[in-house]
């Protein structure tokens, strides 16, 4: 029988965290789900940890990729292998609260036009000590998806990490876009939100671990983040529903370029990324001057 929900845990070398993630799924107040662990060729004892659940007869399926696919392609493998109506991607260092699936599915089934639902997130350290909360809003929300896109376009990913959302498989067949490296989740949320409404639950239904092993904490990732901001801008600024004027687009380009200039590079970035970094800085700044020139000569092509 086809499960209602597919919980997919993409993982790579997080054996020391993944048991917490699996246990949080097995503790859910609903049981109409499949739990898939998609291992991207871990070199630690991840396989041993997960196989322990299989030996106990727990509701867990373990899939190990033949080769390392990279982060984005492994996320897409999750979507490909999921057989449920709804997909919940759970990062292998995060956890779900016991009522997470129940409350999210309830909203989706009551609102068939909703293409993406998110909840507030409880931030915790590696030992699960409380570090505060992040939320799209301080109250429940149900709004057109393009409204959420416009809000996040300039402010950033208020919706949250993959662990914080739930969506329908039919809306996500295209998968995550591999040309993005850091904002891959937000860009996916935008494409889902173009198809329907956005719902938000102000209760923290997941725990997002913050720890030193996360790639997002490095300055090199900060550099990639700004690069992805330009990419997101180029992909979405001209869409009619954004309603941006030429001057608003120009200002946004300048703000992102300025952020790139101000990026605080650590030693590894200076040594390994100097050429790429300065090349992008020059490209984006010259792009600003090009847009100003077009404006002065009456060619408002953005």
From TrEMBL:
Gene3D superfamilies: Spore Coat Polysaccharide Biosynthesis Protein SpsA, Chain A. Residues 6-119 form the Glycosyltransferase 2-like domain. The keyword Cytoplasm does not apply. InterPro entries: Glyco_trans_2-like, Glycosyltransf_2, Nucleotide-diphossugar_trans. Keywords: Transferase. The keyword Transferase applies. It holds the Pfam family Glycos_transf_2. One of its GO terms (molecular function) is transferase activity. This is Glycosyltransferase involved in cell wall biosynthesis. It comes from Geobacter argillaceus.
């Amino acid at each position: 029988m086809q499960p209602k929900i597919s919980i997919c845990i993409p993982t790579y070398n997080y054996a020391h965290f993944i048991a917490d993630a699996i246990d949080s799924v097995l503790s859910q107040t609903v049981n109409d789900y499949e739990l898939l662990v998609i291992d991207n060729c871990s070199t630690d004892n991840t396989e041993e940890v997960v196989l322990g659940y299989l030996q106990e007869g727990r509701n867990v399926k373990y899939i190990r990729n033949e080769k390392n696919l990279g982060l984005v392609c492994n996320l897409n493998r999750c979507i490909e292998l999921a057989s449920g109506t709804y997909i919940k991607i759970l990062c292998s260092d995060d956890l779900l609260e016991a009522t997470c699936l129940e409350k999210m599915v309830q909203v989706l089934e009551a609102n068939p036009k909703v293409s993406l639902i998110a909840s507030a997130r409880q931030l915790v350290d590696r030992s699960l000590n409380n570090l505060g909360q992040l939320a799209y809003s301080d109250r429940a929300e149900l709004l057109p998806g393009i409204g959420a896109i416009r809000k996040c376009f300039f402010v950033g990913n208020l919706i949250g990490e993959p662990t914080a959302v739930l969506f329908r498989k039919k809306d996500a067949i295209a998968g995550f876009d591999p040309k993005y490296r850091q904002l891959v989740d937000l860009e996916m949320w935008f494409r889902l939100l173009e198809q329907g409404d956005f719902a938000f639950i102000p209760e923290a239904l997941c725990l997002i671990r913050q720890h030193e092993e996360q790639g997002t904490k490095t300055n090199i990732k900060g550099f990639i983040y700004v690069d992805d901001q330009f990419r997101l801008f180029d992909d979405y600024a001209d869409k009619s529903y954004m309603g941006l004027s030429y001057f608003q687009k120009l200002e946004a380009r300048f703000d992102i370029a300025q952020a790139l200039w101000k990026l605080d590079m650590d030693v590894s970035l200076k040594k390994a990324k100097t050429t790429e970094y300065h090349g992008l800085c020059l490209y984006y700044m010259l792009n600003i001057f090009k847009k100003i020139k077009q404006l002065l000569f009456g060619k408002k092509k953005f």
